[in-house]
Write a structure and sequence with these properties.
Elements (H helix, E strand, L loop, with lengths): L2 E3 L9 H5 L4 E3 L5 E3 L6 H7 L5 E3 L1
Antiparallel strand pairs: 1-4, 2-3
């Protein structure tokens, strides 16, 4: 599984970190970043209002 965050689309709402803190954290720029791949990443992608997360 490959997980990525499109920083241009990310609005910094932190929904992904609330749903899947194992995979996401907020970076210094206020945008989400991937820290690890985990089984909850697809749930975080579904929760992202900006559709900035890709899980392949």
């Amino acid at each position: 599984m490959a997980v990525s965050v499109n920083k241009d689309k990310c609005i910094g709402c932190a929904a992904c970190t609330q749903v899947c803190s194992q995979s996401f954290q907020m970076a210094q720029d206020g945008k989400a970043e991937v820290v690890a791949e985990s089984e909850c990443a697809p749930n975080a992608a579904a929760a992202c209002p900006a559709k900035a997360i890709t899980v392949e």
